[in-house]
Amino acid sequence: MLEVQQIACATVAAVRAGRNLNVVLAEQRARHPQLTSQQLGAVNDLSYGTLRFGFQLDCILAELLNKPMQDADLRWLLLIALYQLEHTRAAPYAIVDHAVRSAAALGHAHAGGLVNAVLRNFLRKREEVLAKAKHSDVGRFAFPQWWIARLCTQYPQHYAAMLEACNTHPPLTLRVNCRRSTVADYLAELARHDIAAAQTGAWAVRIQHPVAVERLPGFSAGVVSVQDAAAQFAAPLLDAQNGMRVLDACAAPGGKTTHLLERAELDLVAVDSDASRLARVQQNLDRLQLKATLVAADVQALGSWWDGRPFERILADVPCTASGVVRRHPDIKWLRRAVDIARFATQQRAMLEALWQVLASGGKLLYATCSVFDEENTRQIDDFLARHADARRLPLSEAVSTNGIPEGQLLPDNEHDGFFYALLQKI
Ligand SMILES: C[S@@+](CC[C@H](N)C(=O)[O-])C[C@H]1O[C@@H](n2cnc3c(N)ncnc32)[C@H](O)[C@@H]1O
């Protein structure tokens, strides 16, 4: 556990310094080839969990210290140990002992007494400390204050449940390839492999206890793909029919590209500005035995990739704050700033403007984000409609139902991630 604590400590500190969690974890795996798969799993759990609950753990730590902790390494070590004490089943005495030794290994042998006292104090006064920490919104919800305030204003009825849902472990949801199987048949196949699962959408199956994808029957043969249930709405909403010319404007890693192609025979162009991510689209196409034309380009620079032939359908799954998928990427809580929302909204606006030019008359464009902030969603679309007399917004199917929240906005819950869809037609 000692080494695991220290590697997790370096990982979360790197995220705090502005780096992407998955990239840092990949580097840690390469740097520490001696770690067993169990230890790697523990590093992942401590890193993800500490970032997920870090804002709350910080409030707990503040209750346990007389003055703020200045040293960043020691602070992260204490947050990791508090996460372990509160959210894992490791023996408390071992957690405390290893934290004291980790402090020494990090060059803070003098702080061993403090680490020991803080953690033991937490164990002694846990209920009282937790209650005090949860007096503030940040301590209650484990999110930055600006994020909580925004959701509270936007969703006064739903924000508490949303924030709580965003602190849970994300479900593992699969999309059954409609060319290869049915939900009923695949559920039966899972049952034969002792994997408990249930249907959670037209073609969506949720696995009860997440397993490695290699263990999923038929995965490598393309019978299923991993895709959240909310993301699975995109292809049916776009309603691309056999023979249509379709643009997937922000395609990588290809979850929605492949869904579109499973459902119909399309002349599909998949564009993404990130060539390395585009390679993952090709891998997914190969696994599923599907074909598309892949283009690495900035989709807004029409002159660099467009041949002048309009598209009948366009999927614009634009870059966004990803605030609807924060439970899958808890580093977002630390990496995003409130000002990023306006930055993304400006980029999305420019993309929409460019894509509208390549949409055929009568054609449909599906705008999608995995965000819950209205500047990127409803307001973006309202502004677009106000600027374009040749655009109208089409109603979405019942499946993307909205209960007192803006049309097309899916809130994160037990079933799916937070997402937004708006279907536009050129008239
Ligand atoms: C939300 S992700 C797309 C997810 C994908 N549709 C799927 O379902 O798997 C957004 C993508 O937009 C790409 N992107 C960002 N700016 C772009 C641009 N100017 N032109 C094309 N792609 C861009 C990013 O590289 C990223 O892969």
Would you kindly provide a written description of the structure presented here, covering whatever features stand out?
- By secondary structure, this protein is α/β, with parallel strands linked by helices.
- The protein has three domains: 2-142, NusB-like (N-utilizing Substance Protein B Homolog, Chain A), CATH 1.10.940.10; 172-226, Sun protein, domain 3 (Alpha-Beta Plaits); 231-426, Rossmann fold, CATH 3.40.50.
- It is 47% helix and 14% strand.
- The protein is built from 18 helices and twelve strands.
- The protein has helices at 2-16, 21-31, 37-64, 72-87, 92-105, 112-124, 126-133, 137-141, 145-154, 159-165, 183-192, 234-238, 255-263, 275-288, 302-305, 332-335, 339-357, 378-387; strands spanning 172-176, 197-199, 204-207, 224-226, 245-248, 267-272, 293-296, 311-317, 359-369, 391-394, 409-410, 419-426.
- Strands 5, 6, 7, 8, 9, 10, 11 and 12 form an eight-stranded mixed beta sheet that branches. The protein has a four-stranded antiparallel beta sheet with strand order 2-3-1-4, with helices on one face.
- Strand 6 (267-272), helix 14 and strand 7 form a beta-alpha-beta unit.
- Helix 1 (2-16) packs across helix 5 and helix 4 runs parallel beside helix 6.
- The protein is globular, with a radius of gyration of 23 Å.
- The protein starts with a helix and ends with a strand.
- The protein binds S-adenosylmethionine.
- S-adenosylmethionine binds next to helix 13 and strand 6.
